[in-house]
Structures are given as structure tokens and as C-alpha cells.
Amino acid sequence: MSSPLYPWQQSAWQQIQKMNGRWPHAILLHGPRGIGKTVFAEWLAQSLLCETPLVDGHACGGCVSCGWVSQYSHPDYRRLRPEILESDDAQADPDEAATPKSAVKASKAPSREIVINQVRALSDFMSISTHRQGARVIVIYPAEAMNVAASNALLKSLEEPGPNTVFILVSSGIDALLPTLVSRCRQFPLSMPSREIALAWLAQQDCHKPDQLLAEQGGAPLAALEAFQSETFQQQEEFLMHLRRPDSETALKIAEKLQKTPIPLLISWMQRWLYDVFSFKLTGKIRYYPRYQKEIDQVAQAMSLPALLTLLENNAERKAVADHPLAPRLLIEEILLDYAGLSQPHN
Ligand SMILES: [Zn+2]
After folding, report:
1. Is residue 92 part of a domain?
2. Cα of 94 to ligand 1 centre, how many Å?
């Protein structure tokens, strides 16, 4: 298993490895938002717990400990996060998407703070000896989410740390932390990658207009990618929504709305959709958009095979000119009208 660290984190990793064997009880990783500090902290935790780490300090990825850490079930590992982050994870699971959100959420909104009970729960964890006779690691993020009571409770734990215990605090707002807490930690800054490195990485993630997004997000590459993905995801939903029940009139409206969406993206969404309709028609299988199985089924029934093949062919031809369309909006209109003309879903 290769390290999940981002390219701009390699030198910070080498720096922190210089502490090897002399780990302080508490490390404070801090730096700007959107650069991957949490990934770094969790990987450091896994590497400290790994039973057969590599020479460069990275976790092996194959031992029992590594397996447990990746499942968040290692008996000597704890994460302290605000409750709201736990529920975000649950909702990020696409299989959960069908469950109404109101049913997932309890009547009380999940807390944005790390509360004292979460810190108190650590004392039981720290009072027994470690299960694997190795380190015991507690990752806390974002550390500034700890309220005052929680911070004071943590301060006590830091004053009497158990043997082999390492706290890793992660913060994008070190000024919001209790100064006494900060002074108990070995500070370790993680810095913003250079613009060149960030742009190269974003390009690898198929991010369009990376320089614009990066500038909007103050140079933070993960924040830029997140912004890109959330915007394009909504555009994709709108586009697919239309493909489910196409007609010429809404085709023009959608073309106007999506005229700023990169054409290569639109064409790839169309291609995937057509592929799914085609595949469902022939084999009953859906590869890209299983969440729209019902709609794909309807379209597949309504569309003749020759019409489908014509659309696939037209789409492939457009792909060739997609990077530099002369009139993007007209091209989107053409794509959608072509599709609407060749599909007659019955309702
Ligand atoms: Zn390992």
C-alpha cells in the first residue's frame, strides 16, 4: 500500500520522522484549511501504530494494526471529532441516500463542538494497558472545535500522559486554542503547497479551470477540488434530470443554464447515460448511474436500438470537437435536441 499523503506533504513527513523514537506526548499539526492536514494526521497515527513500519516511517498497510486503523477499530486508537463530522460520514455513503435525512438525524442537531464527555471517555481508554503493546494514539480534529470545558479536561490528560501515548491535535485556527494547551504540544506547521504543485495535482483530478478555483480558495488545493466537485455534481444532476424526461422546450432552458459547464464534461455525462441505457436494454445492467435505474429502464423501453446507436455515434463525433466548441450553448442545445428527438419515453 502506498502512502495516501499528498505530493506537497512529502517533505513535512520527512521532517516529522526526525522525531522517530522521541515522540512527544502531544503534537499540534497546524496550517491553513484545505491542504489535507487530517489525512496527514490519520496517516501519522496509522504509522505510529503499525507493527512493521517501513524504513521511511510509513505504515506498512498490511499488518493487523494497519487493518484495524483503516476500519477505525484499532483498540489503541481514538479519534475525537465533533458529532457533526460523524453524521457527515454516514450521509456521504451513497447507499444511505435513499433514507430521508429527517429519519437519519435525531431530533437534536449534531454538535459542532468537541464536548467534555468525549474527552472524559478517554480516561478509561488511557487507564488500561495497550492491547498491542505498542503506542496509543488519539487524534483530535479540528482541535479548535473543543469548547473550554473540553480543552481544560484535555489539558489535565496532557499533564499526566500515560506511557507510549501520543496525542495528535489538528488545527486550522491555532489562535482559537487555549494558550496553555498549545504550550503543552510540540507544534508542527503544515504549509500551503506552491501554486505549481497545487495546479499539477488539480489537473490530475480532472479539475477544470484549476487556476480560477485555486485562487478563489486562497491556494488550498483540497478546498478547490471540493468546490469544483460540488458545483459540477449539481450541474450533472440537472443534466441527468433532463435526460430522464427530455423535451425540446426544456432542452433550450437547460442549455442556457449549463452554458458555462465544460463541454467535455457534459459529453462524458451523456456518454455514460447512453451507455447505461444501452447496457440496460441489452443485459439489464447499469454501470454509471445505478441511482437512476428506474428512469434508465423507462428510457431504455421507449428508445429504439437504432435511435440509441445513432445517439452514441453522434455523441462520439462531438467528443472530437468538445475541447474547443465555437458556440458552446448552441452545441449543448444540439446535443439535447438530438437526444429529445430520438427518445420518446412514454409516461
Ligand atoms: Zn502496518
Report:
1. yes
2. 29
